[in-house]
Amino acid sequence: MIKRLFRVRPILGTAFVASYIGAIVVKLSGGGEGLAFGVATPALVLSGWAELGHLITLDDDYPGNWSNPESDKGFWRRSLVALLGKLGLFGVLLLVLMA
Q1: Is 33 in contact with 43 (CB distance < 8 Å)?
Q2: By residue range, what is the domain housing residue 78?
Q3: How many domains, in total, are found in the chain?
């Protein structure tokens, strides 16, 4: 089962990157609004899902909580940076689509 999980991740990653880049290319090349949103849908869903999941479990990464029992402040900062990165990916794609 673990091996199967690792085979799925490259597929999701490739789908995300292709959708993200494809939507930006379609939008910037003057393609239709509907086409740009259609191409961007997988990237929006995957990045929004990752962001929401991280936000929901963010309190676990706080020093002394479930995921960080050693109270490592670096762990907490890396978690916040990862959340900001996910938010940035989602936000940039939305800005490009809304422009």
Answers
A1: no
A2: 2-98
A3: 1
